[in-house]
Known about the structure:
The chain has 126 residues and is an alpha+beta fold. The protein is built from two helices and six strands, in the order E-E-E-H-E-H-E-E. A six-stranded mixed sheet has the order 1-2-3-6-4-5, with helices on one face.
Amino acid sequence: MKKVITTPNAPAPIGPYNQAILTGNTLYISGQIPMDPATGKLIEGDIKKETAQSMENLKAILTEAGMTFENVVKSSIFVKDMHQFAAINEVYGAYFDAETAPARETVEVANLPKFVNVEISMIAIK
Length: 126
């Protein structure tokens, strides 16, 4: 059985999907972009701030589900420009212990929703 996880502390979906779905002990979190949930405005112009906002949105959803970044087993990072990878990785890495960090892929794409520079999704296990 699936349970919809939603929180006002992360951006509301901009399409026909939910912030996250919990099924059994597994949480599937939809891709989070650098949108401030309080204002609905995009964070733009600084890839580190954009990545941090995406991670904070993910953190809010994890918290709503009773989890932390320690529960994350898989991340997917989508970037518009792979030349920004080092800066993205620096911010992303600050949210994890290097020895227990999740599996991950980083993929450069032509465009992302709302034409942002970064989008991150995660899978977590209780």
